[in-house]
Amino acid sequence: MTANETWSMANGGPSAAQATSLSGSAKDKARKASQDFEAMFLEQSLERVFSSSGTEGPLGDNGTGGAVYRSMLVKEYAGALTKSGGIGIADHVYREMMKIQEAAHAQRG
Length: 109
What we know:
Number of helices: 4
Helix content: 55-70%
């Protein structure tokens, strides 16, 4: 049993493995969307942190492209954090998406 399944069972929600009536591609799309959402959230949060660090130095807005480099760096940091497990937002979003899709699937037939 994975850590996500254990956590999900402890919190009363269905795990990703329990959502069996949906196709694999639908699950893959939902997983990708939830990870993209977490990456976007982390990117926006990290952008605030880095923008408050001032305008001096290599990541500053000193006219040499520091702001552009900083935005690319923040995007890579957010992606790396998400790929390494993130902060848990993607798992929550994925479980909620699966609940909604399972309910819609059950209503259709």
